[in-house]
Design brief:
Helix content: over 70%
Number of strands: 0
Number of helices: 6
Keywords: Membrane, Transmembrane, Transmembrane helix
Length: 118
């Protein structure tokens, strides 16, 4: 066994780059990041950009105004028992349904665009 430069390593291992010699997985991380970037992030961003006008159309058709959207958000986060005590339970259910339907339409549109790219 030929020891290299006092490092205590065999000659064939001392000539390797430091990342491989110490068992670092930087190359694997880089490859995984590249695959993720090419396969998921770029098509996802393109799908979001193409769907943005549809999001606005869905928003305008379902809510119509900013105040109605903010009310839907308030009802979404407000506990149902509190709405029931305030006698707003029916409005709470209706507004929560509208917001859920809006989120469903937006995610379906994005999924459809993303599936067209792959």
């Amino acid at each position: 066994m030929n020891l290299a430069a006092g490092a205590g390593l065999p000659a064939e291992q001392s000539e390797m780059d430091p990342a491989r010699r110490h068992g670092d997985i930087r190359g694997v991380r880089f490859a995984a990041t590249e695959i993720l970037r090419e396969a998921v992030i770029k098509p996802g961003l393109i799908a979001l950009l193409l769907c943005a006008p549809m999001y606005y159309v869905f928003w305008k058709a379902i809510f119509g105004s900013r105040q109605e959207f903010l009310d839907a958000l308030r009802f979404w986060f407000q506990p149902n028992w509190l709405s029931w005590l305030r006698a707003e339970f029916n409005k709470d259910m209706y507004m929560s349904f509208k917001l859920g339907f809006f989120l469903f339409l937006c995610s379906a549109c994005t999924w459809l665009m993303l599936s067209l790219f792959q």
